[in-house]
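Handout, section B. The chain below has 183 residues.
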Amino acid sequence: MISLIIALALSAAQDMPATPDAEPERIAEEAAPVPKEPDRDPLTGELPVDPYEMSNANAGAGPFRGTGMRDAFHGQDGIHRIVKNMVDRSVADPRISEIFVAHDLVRLRRTLFEQFCYILNAGCDYSGRDMASSHKDLGLQVDDLNVLVEHLQSAMAAEGISFAAQNRFLSKLAPMKRDVVTR
């Protein structure tokens, strides 16, 4: 009976921390405050950003003339679908997904839609930042941009945009490379 009590006592002693200070350290680590995400805008769901001057000039390109490109892209509904598809593909692609981890995807989708809608002359104004300041801390490389363009082309093809219309749109976006690629 005594050997059973000693065995139980030894077993319990093995489960105890090696030093008496280990338990308070573990509790302190668990109690450390987790950084709280800033409150999102109740209407848009977006995270707050520092103020900046809003201008269509920030879109990086002027709009097409007439309604041909708007119609080729199926208006605002088609542009919404293209942006959603492109962003979803990019976030899921392991080659570039890490770029999107710490970003506000709600805001990204909205500003990309506005940018594309403005450039395609589909009745929108662009409210995002200029290309250089919005991409300056991302460290994007040419390969990253190429993957993003690949996803845009796939999204446009899925929407049934003609190859000629895709190329016209991409030619408007191409000069932005110098402001977007930072390394």
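Note. Confidence is low (pLDDT under 50) at residues 1-19. Compare this with the example in section A.
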